[in-house]
Amino acid sequence: MTTAFLKQAAPGVQGLRPYQPGKPVSELKRELGLDRVVKLASNENPNGAGPRAMEALSRLENPGRYPEGSGFELKAILSRQHDIAPERIVLGNGSNDVLDLVARVFLTPGRNAVFSRHAFAVYPIVTAAAGARAVVTPPRPADSTMPYGHDPEALAEAVDDDTGVVFVANPNNPTGTWLTPDEIEDLLKRVPEHVVVILDEAYREYMDATLCPDSRALLERYPNLVVTRTFSKVYGLAGLRAGYALCHADMADLLNRVRQPFNISTAAQVVAAAAAEDRTYLQGSVELNTEQRALLQDRLEGMGLFTLPSQANFVTFDVGRPSTPVFEALLREGIILRPLAGYELPNALRITTGNGEENREALTVLERVLESP
Ligand SMILES: *Cc1c(COP(=O)(O)O)cnc(C)c1O
Fold first, then answer.
1. Inter-CA distances, 57 with 67, 269, 270, 342, 350, Å
2. Element (H, E) at 226
3. How far apart are the two ends of the chain, measured CA to CA in Å?
């Protein structure tokens, strides 16, 4: 037996390693024989899915038939909500799927994708998988008002003749930092109109309304803009896999050419449609997050730790020493956070905003772990 095929893998794929997800609760329980585990590692909604989504889940029909390939119902709801034609919506198996579609259409060997250091981990993966080169721009300095955040100036300057896509996460994961609406529009003005700009708004609903760009209006002014959204975060449907892009109709047509015909399952379509209409649940989730995120930030600062500003459902903080051993010590006590060495932030941990009890428990254990040398 040989693995001669390894050398045949596309060059971009040879240098990749699989994405490291947060450790699942069931795995940690099994490994350590723990009964109780608090997982605040993957930016999931602590309340899970809402009542209308759960009700839709319980009504699912026998899945013997293929999904509705066009996602008609879900798109109709999103179309009304965003006041945009259904032809300008592309559904994805999570918004990561949409990021991958854009990469497959616009990135080729010889082209590059521009994104900031400490940006979302999926950008380098879809770029390398498409055989393109990553152009990683320096972030804002640690002592700025938006430490480690995207520097829009650096992003705009990095765009060259070979650039196919610019990725912007707003707010960004794992930093929680954001760009102002003016900074976003300035960036769009500076990027040539044939270069695609992805505005990844996975955490948009958590933002203070005054900080949100009017991305719907931007779509009218910048046909090269692709706005991505997800049901994984505030809607509490991470396990279901549903996301989408809003874009120009011709862009949607290109993305649909490479989209797998049944990329979004029947269950995902039906449940996401119900969730999208549950504004009460959304509101409650946002309020819980705003309140608990502020508490987390206060308590972390109170422990003498440097925290990054966040408009998302997590807080990233510096533990003043390599964070992977701290992460491991927390694991042994049943607390799962996210170490950020893989994001070139070796002293940082990211904590998802849980409910009050989860946050208190995690911080109590963290304080104890940090006291031991
Ligand atoms: C979580 C996240 C997503 C969403 O991924 P899904 O595939 O929709 O679950 C997208 N972008 C960023 C920056 C994220 O953190």
1. 15, 10, 8, 36, 31
2. strand 225-230
3. 48
Instruction: Please list the helix, strand and coil fractions of the chain in percent, rounded to the nearest 5, in that order.
Output: 45, 15, 40
Q: Where are the alpha helices (DSSP H) in 170-314?
A: 181-190, 215-221, 249-258, 266-276, 279-302
Of ligand 1's listed atoms, the one at least distance from the Cα of 169 is: 13
Residues with CB under 6 A from ligand 1: 43, 94-96, 120, 169, 173, 200, 202, 230, 232-233, 238, 243
Order of strands, sheet of 163-169, starting from the edge strand that comes earlier in the sequence = 89-92, 243-246, 225-230, 196-200, 163-169, 112-116, 133-137
**Distance separating alpha carbons of residues 258 and 14, to the nearest angstrom:** 23
CA distance readout (Å), 237 to 98, 118, 256: 17, 25, 23
Helix (H) or strand (E) holding 213: none
Ligand 1 probe mutation, 199, 230, 263, 310, most atoms within 8 A of CB = 230
Torsion over CA: 221, 227, 231, 232 (sign) = negative
Question: For residue 231, how far is its CA from the centre of ligand 1 (angstroms)?
Answer: 9
Q: From ligand 1's centre to the CA of 92, what distance in Å?
A: 11
pLDDT along the chain (373 residues), means of 10: 89 84 84 90 97 96 92 97 98 98 97 98 96 98 97 98 98 98 98 98 98 98 98 97 98 97 96 97 98 98 98 98 96 96 97 98 97 82
103 Cα distance to chain centroid: 16
> How far does the centroid of ligand 1 lie from the alpha carbon of residue 230, in Å?
7
> Would you say 38 and 364 are in contact if contact means Cβ atoms under 8 Å apart?
no
HSE of 308 in the Cβ direction (CA atoms, 13 Å)? Answer: 33
CA dihedral 356, 362, 365, 370 (to 10 degrees): -120
